[in-house]
C-alpha cells in the first residue's frame, strides 16, 4: 500500500499536479500615502478625459481597513483647478468594462502591446522661493495645499513638518516635477462626521488643467514599497491610448475599447466619445516615467473575454506534448514495479 502511495505521489509530481498559491498583490497608490492607523491604500483608479486642449483627471483611491484620516501628495501642472468627481461615473464604467465570459474551447494568442514613445510635459521654472504655499482650498472632504518652489528638499521639509507622507528617497522625483514648473498638491482627507472612519471607497478628486500632451503623473510610485494596482479609463472625442508607459517592462493591459455616450462621464456632447480602459499591476522599481497619452483614430472595438472552457494555446499544446509521453513512461514504470512485486511474491510462495 505504501509503495502504491509513493508511486502515485511520484506520478503527480511528474505531471505537475500540486498546490499553487499565487502571491497577493499589495499596493500603495501614488507612492506617498499615510493614514492614522494600520489601514492602507490598495489601489488607484482614474478617469482621464481629454478634449484636445483640456485634460480632466478624476482619481479615486481604495482604502483597506478603518482610518480616521488620510493624507497624500501628488504633482500637477501649474494652474490646475480642483473639484469633486462623481462616484457614479466610476460605477458605470466598471460595469461597462466587465469581460465577456465564453465557455467554448478556444485557442489562446498573446495580444501585442502598444509601443512606448517619447512624451512628457513641458514648462520652464520661474524665479521663485525654495518652497511657497500658493493656496489652501477646501474641496468637499479634501483640504488641499498647493506648494511651489525650486528646491525639492525644502518642499519635502515643509511636508514633513505638516505630517505628510514624505521620505528622502522621493526628493529627486519631486525635483524633476518642480524643474518642469509643476506644483505639489498636498491633500488631507477627514470624515464628514467627527469620530467616524473614512469610507473604503474614497470620494473622487477632480484635477483639470490645460495641456496639449495629456499625462497621468505616477512617477512618485517608483519610491513605493509595494506593488501598484492601476486602472485607467481614457475617454475623449477621439481614441486616446498610452503613448509612454510608466513601466515599459509591465505595460497596462487593454480590457475594453468602445464608443460611449459622453454623459457616462458627465459631459454634454452630441457626438459619441471613445473609451479605452487599461488595467495592470506595476512593480515600483520598474516605474521610470509618467503615463502620457496620444489621440489617434479609434481602434477596433475590443472586449476582454474570459474563457471558462478549455484554452488551447501554444503553451497548452506544448505542455500536452510533454505530459503524454511522460505519463506513458510513468505508467510503464508503475506497471513494471507491480510485475516485479508479483514475481517476488510468487517466488516467495
What does this structure look like?
This protein is an alpha+beta fold. It has two domains: 29-100 and 108-306; 314-343. The protein has helices at residues 2-14, 87-96, 152-161, 171-179, 314-348; strands spanning 33-35, 40-50, 54-64, 70-76, 81-84, 100-102, 132-139, 142-148, 183-189, 205-210, 215-216, 228-236, 239-244, 253-260, 273-282, 291-296, 302-303, 305-307. The strands form four sheets. The protein has an eight-stranded mixed beta sheet with strand order 5-10-3-2-12-15-14-17, with helices on one face. A five-stranded antiparallel beta sheet has the order 1-4-9-8-7. A hairpin with a 3-residue loop joins strand 2 and strand 3.
- Pattern of helices and strands: HEEEEEHEEEHHEEEEEEEEEEH
End-to-end Cα distance, whole Å, is 20 Å
Q: Please describe the biggest sheet, giving its number of strands, its sense, and whether it closes into a barrel.
A: 8 strands, mixed
User: What is the tally of helical segments?
Assistant: 5
Beta-strand portion reads 25-35%
**What structural class is derived from the secondary structure elements?**
alpha+beta
Spatial strand sequence of the major β-sheet: 5-10-3-2-12-15-14-17
Rg calculated over all Cα atoms: 27 Å
Weakly predicted, low-confidence segments: 1-29, 108-126
